[in-house]
Amino acid sequence: MTSVWSTRLTVAGSAAAVVATLLVNAPPAAAAMPFGAVDPATVAQFRLNQVVAGGGADGTDAAVAAVERTGAVQKVDVSTVLNTGGSTGIAGLCHDTGLSASLKPGGHCWKKEDDRSSSWNATEGGWTPQGLSLPYSDSGAPADGKWKGVPAHAVTWHHSTDMGNPDPAKRRGDEYARLTLVNAKNAAPNYHNLLLVQPVRKADGTGDFRVVPRNHVDGVVWYGDRAFVANGRYLQVYDLRHIWKLNKQGKEVGVSGTTSSGLWHNYAVPMVAMYQTTTGDTPCSVTSGTTPCLNSLSLDRTGGQDSLVSAEYKKDAAGGRVVRWPLDATTKLPKGTASAAYSSPVWSMQGAATDGTNWYLAGTCPTGSGGGTPSDPYSCVHKARANTAPHVMTAAPVYTQNLSYSWTTDRLWGINERINSTVGKRVVFSVNTP
Questions:
Q1: In this structure, are residues 235 and 48 in contact, taking their beta carbons and an 8 Å threshold?
Q2: pLDDT above 70 (res 17)
Q3: What is the C-alpha separation between 199 and 261, in angstroms, rounded?
């Protein structure tokens, strides 16, 4: 479940069983209310303040170079990762999804270990998927969904342990995170997991890296050679030109001499910039105020300017804001100031994407819509235009998260996070947008 962030990137915290119960008993989405524009004077105060910059005081560029000088990592490109074996998923939608057959749904499932992993496991924890993005060209070309001709997508996962423990001190949430690059050329996809790391240039000039802590990786946008990752009040930037192949698959994280390791991952990718919607160590604010939270992420490439789109998750309530953040055409990084925002009437909104005219919003179904079972009610994808009331386009998999739109195919993609350690419940799906 995407969480509302408060201070120091800590996940808002209760056990998943409690969250599930709350969602089952949540009031209906207020579908009669409009997807209304936020006052432009308020939007003008929404900022992405850069706090980690390459070549700045944090020395990110120098740290990346220092790691690569050690000889402990081998720099590889995205195509090498996509076209080199990896894990194999399951073709087709292997679980019930609720998706309308009229929208011609398609997709895939993960291998068993990833489908059934549980962050409520008390000994080894588990991975939970959150963000999903097609690859988007940063040149404006509408080649959505392919990387150098290969159908692909990216997914973010966070790792947590013993989240059902009644003792908060024993729950270890968002210990570390990964980015999965999926080659979807075949019906049964192949994929690799890349550990998300922060590069470090030590006092003696040598390079090292560590995990990015307290990282819920709520949303992701794969934009050219960059992966933008939303993490509450933070927006992280990872450089896909510097994917590191590690030479030891061990528990250790970092560089030791000429050896590199990262929690049994074959690959790692470094963070090279970070922004936040607040100043200092203050929390972001959901539904009101001028420091919105970033609880999902998608790309809007309409209106002559590419923009990131963030959305806020408000548990069991409406009012989460959807915000446009324009990208600089030269640097391919955020300009810093939001250009538009909307207040959503969808309860427990988990994802938002747009085709430039219509908005697609994942969240709780209104009373009488959706279906599923009492313990596993389907999510719904709502469709709306600015300043109009949404309607349900389709039911969707339980706990649907991020959405990603393809201008090439006019299809909407999504991912869900439901934990079921017995049979699994997770899918990646796509549907037509009528």
A1: yes
A2: no
A3: 13
